Amino acid sequence: MKPIKASYQWTVDELATAQVYHNNISGRRARWIRYGGLIIMLGATLSLAFFRGQFSWTVFGLVGVAYLGVVISEVLRHPSMVHRAAEKAFVDRPDKDKMVRFEFDDEAILSGTEGFGESTIHWDDIQRVIETPTGFLFYLNKQVYIWVPEEAIKPKNDIGRLRELVQEKIENYVDEAV
Fold this sequence. Notes:
Blueprint lengths: L3 E6 L2 H15 L1 H24 L5 H20 L2 H12 L8 E6 L3 E6 L3 E6 L5 E5 L2 E5 L5 E5 L8 H12 L3 E3 L3
Parallel strand pairs: 5-8
Antiparallel strand pairs: 1-2, 2-3, 3-4, 5-6, 6-7
Helix pairs in contact: 1-4, 2-3
């Protein structure tokens, strides 16, 4: 099989895009736990206040603080905030604005960054792959991932080949592209 090639310039926009997708995907369960806990706390507070006639400013204040925590958490996950944080973090990165390239074949993924050398990632080292509307996130663990945007894959018909290869090699493949 001829290797599938991808290359792109690592910019702050690529970093922010990858982080937004990662945050949205990895934070879903925690987000629903926060919302569920908040709804339960709010329901308990209202039932104590209105149905039993007991009102406690302490409990009401705790629910307010929890609500504020959820709101702040959601604001920090907003794409514009993620982009702002990525801009700050990107300034000090030694790999900023460097060309990144990948070669995907049946055996492994060859990865290289201009001025930093190359590395080989075997398919067994990848825990899961998530296809997003604009690219692929290859997870080495829950927090460490490799971003490969679709626009980096040339020719465009190799996107389908890469999708098929990933589905063949990775058991935990998720299609979030829809």
